[in-house]
Structure formats: structure tokens, C-alpha cells
């Protein structure tokens, strides 16, 4: 998925195992949380009764509420992902990345070398 690719692409190769483990842990915690939410909703609205024809309206109400809660959580997740995309789309000029620093250093080195070579050429003439 794009989120996993973004996570793994932003981690140094020596930490890929840790990032993968943390990603799996977060996925498992998400599944556990969703099971906890639906269990709480069923227990509150169905009062511990089994699903039968008599409890079908309570079951359908529980399902409707659970789907609304999970829909809201999905909207929050989409918002977080879109926020990540927007933040990554705009470069942060106040904090250049290491490669930008290296490029700037290379440019300064080249400029210094050009200045020195011009001085040597002018000194020979």
C-alpha cells in the first residue's frame, strides 16, 4: 500500500526490520481496537442477548452504529493521509535534507575551485 511504501522508504536500511515490526504491531492494535469497539456496541445495545429473530432490531441498530463509528474513523484516517501528502508535497526550505546540504557543499567547493583556477590563470598572464 502507499502508506507502507512511504514508511519503508523513509527508514534507513538498517532499521527496516524495526519499521516493519512497528507497522505490523500498529495494524494488529488497529484490529484489536475495532473488535473492542464492536464488542462494546453489541454489549450496550443487545444487552448480552444472542442474535435471534426477537433481537434482530437491536442487532441491526448495533450494526448501523458500528458502521457509522468505523466510517468516522476512516474519514479521520483519510484526513491524516491527505495531511501527510500535502506536507510532503511542499518542500521545507528551512531544513534542507542531507542530499541538499551535500549538493550545496559541492556547489561551494566547485565555486571555490573555479575562483582558485582563475587566480592561477591570471597569475600566469
Structure explained in plain terms:
The protein is mainly α. It is built from 4 helices and no strands. The radius of gyration is 28 Å and the shape is elongated. It starts with a helix and ends with a helix. 0% of the residues are buried.
Q: How are helices and strands ordered from N to C?
A: HHHH
The largest sheet, given as strand count, sense and whether it forms a barrel, is: none
Instruction: Provide the residue-averaged pLDDT.
Output: 79
**Count of extended strands:** 0
Low-confidence parts: 110-114
Bulk shape:
elongated
* Cα gyration radius (Å): 28 Å
- Helix content range of the residues, please? over 70%
Structural class category: mainly alpha
Q: How large is the count of helical segments? A: 4
- What distance separates the N and C termini? 64 Å
* Oligomerization: single chain
SSE blueprint and pairings:
Layout: H1 2-9, H2 16-46, H3 56-89, H4 98-124
Spell out the key features of this protein.
125 residues; single chain; 80% helix
Outline of this structure?
The chain has helices spanning 2-9, 16-46, 56-89, 98-124.
Amino acid at each position: 500500500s502507499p502508506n507502507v511504501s512511504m514508511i519503508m522508504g523513509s527508514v534507513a536500511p538498517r532499521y527496516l526490520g524495526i519499521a516493519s515490526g512497528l507497522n505490523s504491531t500498529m495494524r494488529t492494535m488497529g484490529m484489536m481496537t475495532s473488535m473492542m469497539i464492536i464488542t462494546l456496541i453489541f454489549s450496550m445495545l443487545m444487552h448480552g442477548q444472542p442474535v435471534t429473530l426477537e433481537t434482530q432490531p437491536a442487532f441491526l441498530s448495533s450494526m448501523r452504529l458500528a458502521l457509522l463509528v468505523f466510517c468516522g474513523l476512516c474519514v479521520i484516517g483519510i484526513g491524516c493521509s491527505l495531511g501527510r501528502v500535502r506536507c510532503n508535497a511542499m518542500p521545507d526550505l528551512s531544513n534542507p535534507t542531507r542530499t541538499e546540504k551535500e549538493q550545496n557543499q559541492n556547489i561551494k567547493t566547485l565555486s571555490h575551485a573555479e575562483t582558485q583556477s582563475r587566480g592561477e590563470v591570471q597569475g600566469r598572464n
